[in-house]
């Protein structure tokens, strides 16, 4: 836990003892529940401005709550390799820097981003044919910084045994919806 709050919840799973401590809960939920059902269980927490799956404390504003919900939506689309939902998260003029081993040049525009991610999605599907979800993306240390009322920056880590994946999303409000205008992805050794 990152120390931003000391709350815990009691989670009772069928045929299991109740589990106390929200930090362990995200792993138990992921192991015992499909992503859609897990998202429905966590939805009331998001409405209250707290996203236990993000390992972050209470949101401080409606904008921050909306950005946190958007990040979870984006990651769930990526977990499920749901290209229509995933690419809808990007603005038409978005840019992306992909992590190594992808080419180091910036990718400009939604069409080019889609083409690059189609190759990424195909590689993930080949390695995990039993999905969806095809992989598990749990954001750690999610921080949201509002930049005026129409922009925000969200940063977080994704971890596995091989790397710490550092992610930055620069977001712009598009009507009632947030969209990614820039995604910067880099990896570091754990």
- Say what the CATH topology is: Nuclear Transport Factor 2, Chain: A
Strand order within the widest beta sheet: 4-3-8-7-6-5
Instruction: Report the span from N to C terminus.
Output: 18 Å
How many distinct beta strands?
Answer: 8
Tally of separate helices: 5
CATH architecture name: Roll
Mean pLDDT: 77
Could you state the order of secondary-structure elements as H and E?
EEHHHHEEHEEEE
**What sort of overall outline do the alpha carbons produce when their principal axes are compared?**
globular
- Main sheet: strands, sense, barrel: 6 strands, mixed
Helix percent band: 25-40%
Unreliable runs: 1-56
CA-atom Rg in angstroms: 17 Å
Textual characterization of the structure:
- By secondary structure, the chain is α+β, with helices and mostly antiparallel strands.
- It has one domain (10-188): Nuclear Transport Factor 2, Chain: A (Roll), CATH 3.10.450.
- Helices cover 34% and strands 28% of the residues.
- It has a 6-stranded mixed sheet with strand order 4-3-8-7-6-5, with helices on one face. A two-stranded antiparallel sheet has the order 1-2.
